[in-house]
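Contributing new complexes? Match this layout with 6-O-phosphono-beta-D-glucopyranose.
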Amino acid sequence: HTQPAPFPEGFLWGASTSGYQVEGGWDADGKGRSIVDARTQFPAGTTDYTVASDHYHHVDEDVALFAELGLKAYRFSVQWTRIVPDGDGAENPDGIAFYHRLIDGLLAHGITPVLTMYHFDLPQALAEKGGWGSRATIDAFVRFAEILYREFGAKVPYWLTINEQNMMVLFGGTLGIIDGPDNADVNVYQKNHHMLVAQARAMELLHRTVPTAKIGPAPNIAYVYAESCRPEDVLAADDFNAVRNWLYLDAAVHGRYNATAWAYLEAKGLTPTIEPGDLEVMAAAHPDFLAFNYYATHTAAAPLEGDDVPIEGGDQHISFGEPGYYRAVANPHLPKNAFGWEIDPIGFRMTFRAIYDRYHLPLLVTENGLGAFDVLEADGTVHDDYRIDYLRDHIAQIQQAISDGVDVLGYCPWSAIDLVSTHQGIAKRYGLVYVNRDDDDLKDLARYRKDSFAWYQKLIAGNALPD
Ligand code: BG6
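Output block (do not edit by hand):
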């Protein structure tokens, strides 16, 4: 396309955060402990989440910044442990009040709230009772959903069920986010199955109780290329796509297990126990749209004989493979960011096409962004031209995807403000707004607009990429 289609009117230009990574106030006003709060081990030089960006105590200031930025949407997550501190017991009115305050603030500025129900932060009390290994957690999640719909259903038009369920399954052990230590031996695909049933019940419940609201899953979807046109490499990429991407979206959209992924689970002895009625519940639930997080594509090659440590590349997002199925390999055509993650804007367009061609549902990007070591200058500026380049290149590919015919609802880059990364501390920054703290020094937590803030503000105001 020489002349890409314009962004549709009402396109949801947004930005994204998650509760535990941004809020702090980890035990404030009756909040319970999540598995993230209970975590004691952090990689060297990184921080815990007790204070994070202290959004809990800066909420009005942060919403005012979002309004100044011109955001049309703000994607955030509620912490289950603020609402129901032990996961399945008494409600916490003060925790509920915090999210009313946030949502009311957004609405007062015309910003559409996009609410993630669950972003890695399972209540520790539930983890101690078996976490997602137990079917009781399905009921606890549905009850949590019921409370959320009762409280926020009339105010929140877009709902996301579970953030990156696929990353929880594939990397949750390493990141300490799948469950507590007590049930590490339970088949992760059993936990995955319980999450799929919980998600289906939550989708159905929203449609029944708040018919005006829309809901969808929010996995991390990344198209997998084959390293070459050698059929064995193409087959490996197909397997990787099935196990990483389609397993989750086929289940959410059609309520069934992807055949290739199921064959893989059978071969590995990892099939979950499916109770009578589960598949019917899953098939009866229908998302209204699909949200997805995108950072970069993967590249797969055929496995090597006797290959049991199929790792190549620098970080979790590429160092991944499955003996006998595929090897994840580095893509020599792509640059890498400071943390070894590949950067692939055209892969973003490919990912849009691949999802839309399979499911024909509107797509909402709930994360995409660049982690970097930003520098706060003495005059309070942050010159993150590398982030502007990243965002521009990816947004240009959204425009191409729209020109391809993909129905895109909006784009919420990660992250609205700096926050604590999943495993690399706050030194790894993603925000449009700088938060003045380090991993070992809380400083004054003041907010500073980065250069990317002004750039994104201009883009939103014009509903087009600035010249
Ligand atoms: C996604 C998560 O995996 O990527 C976020 O949904 C996370 O919670 C983001 O912060 C960036 O990853 P990281 O590891 O750099 O924090």
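Reviewers usually confirm one structural detail per submission. For this one: Residues 18, 21, 163-164, 167, 220, 293, 367, 371, 414, 421-424, 428 surround 6-O-phosphono-beta-D-glucopyranose (CB under 6 Å).
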